[in-house]
Specification:
- By secondary structure, the chain is of the alpha/beta class.
- The chain has two domains: 2-212, Rossmann fold (3-Layer(aba) Sandwich); 224-273.
- It is built from ten helices and 14 strands.
- It has helices spanning 40-47, 69-74, 91-101, 106-119, 135-147, 165-178, 191-197, 215-220, 236-242, 276-286, and strands spanning 2-10, 16-25, 28-33, 55-60, 63-64, 76-79, 153-157, 183-188, 200-205, 208-213, 226-231, 245-251, 254-260, 270-271.
- The strands form three sheets. A six-stranded mixed β-sheet has the order 6-7-8-3-9-10, sandwiched between helices. Strands 2-1-4-5 form a four-stranded antiparallel β-sheet.
- Helix 6 links the parallel strand 7 and strand 8 (183-188).
- Helix 3 crosses helix 4 (106-119).
- The two termini are 33 Å apart.
- The structure holds adenosine-5'-diphosphate.
- Adenosine-5'-diphosphate (ADP) binds at residues 11, 13, 15, 17, 34, 36-42.
């Protein structure tokens, strides 16, 4: 269990990126969803001990993370948003190298690297140069290196941005497989990543945790309160002004508007089946935060 209590951080430029964040993250996949600028990366980097909060505490089981950053790093697998430059070496060589740095003994290293290459589906390309890999292959390599040393906490920051659907599914399967007895914290602005993968989640906005729980339970709370109507393009702005619209999306050249309301709103709207995306948009709007669509 990862336990965050009262984490706050204000950068030197006056931006408050974390505002009293408290969160309990059990073993398994946990999705942290939020728009750009919500504070997700700041939170990930703080937990990874790459930067310090102004106040607050972080416990990983019995370990006081802020007091013992070196111990945390030994137990951590971190897959950052960007690796920067990718090495012109093969995954086999790199994984061997990282295993050496992480203090894995020589005699178990070969077997470990082989197992990681198979597990992340990189066995066939183990001797190819990493800088020639596709986005999905690079991400899988990222997971392979993060898994060295049997971490008890894995942090994955915005992993599927730029992956094609097949690569994304393969990456999801890999994460689901490794998350059995490890805390895996997945930060993303892609709602489907969380909906597909995470038994627990939180939505972050403006440096705060806005809502937390099981995705299905959060969706269930919108049941009977969601309404939709599909209208021609030019009618959407009119409805937007008169109704509490949570989202709009194009469907076959028309606009589907979705509205959260306790009772059926005026204007011929039909009851709609809520999704996690509705939860996300309704939560952000409920806190006065604007929503950007990809
Ligand atoms: P997210 O990962 O959800 O997009 P970030 O943690 O990157 O959010 O950013 C949260 C806020 O803090 C944003 O307003 C961002 O501009 C600001 N911020 C992030 N890093 C820094 C920094 N090093 N210095 C100043 N402001 C920062």
């Amino acid at each position: 269990m990862l336990k965050l209590t009262g984490l706050s951080k204000t950068y030197a430029n006056g931006v408050q990126a974390l505002a009293d964040v408290s969160l309990q993250v059990p073993r398994g996949m946990f999705g942290l969803l939020g728009p750009n600028g919500a504070g997700k990366s700041t939170l990930m980097r703080t937990i990874a001990t790459l930067q310090s909060p102004d106040t607050g505490s972080i416990m990983l089981d019995d370990l006081d993370v802020l007091a013992h950053p070196t111990e945390l790093r030994r137990m951590l697998g971190y897959l950052p948003q960007e690796f920067g430059a990718y090495p012109r070496t093969s995954p086999e060589v790199m994984l061997n190298h990282i295993a050496t740095l992480k203090g894995i003994e020589r005699r178990s290293r070969g077997e470990l690297v082989e197992q990681l290459l198979v597990q992340t589906n990189l066995w066939d390309v183990r001797r190819k140069s990493i800088d020639t890999f596709s986005g999905g292959m690079k991400q899988r390599f990222g997971i392979a290196q993060a898994l060295i040393g049997e971490p008890s906490l894995i942090i994955v920051d915005e992993p599927t941005a730029g992956l094609d659907p097949v690569e994304r599914r393969r990456f999801h399967n890999l994460l689901a497989r490794i998350s059995a007895d490890v805390v895996v914290l997945l930060s993303t602005h892609i709602v489907d990543d969380v909906a597909d993968l995470c038994p627990r989640m939180a939505i972050m906005g403006d440096g705060r945790i806005l809502v937390e729980g099981e995705p299905q339970a959060l969706v269930a709370k919108l049941k009977g309160r969601l309404w939709s109507k599909t209208v021609p393009l030019d009618e959407a702005p009119v409805l937007r002004r008169s109704l509490p619209v949570v989202s709009t999306r194009l469907v076959g050249g028309r606009v589907e508007i979705r509205v959260v309301a306790e009772a059926e709103p005026e204007g011929g709207l039909e009851p709609a089946e809520p999704t996690l995306e509705d939860v996300y948009f309704a939560t952000l709007l409920g806190h006065g935060l604007s929503v950007e669509l990809d």
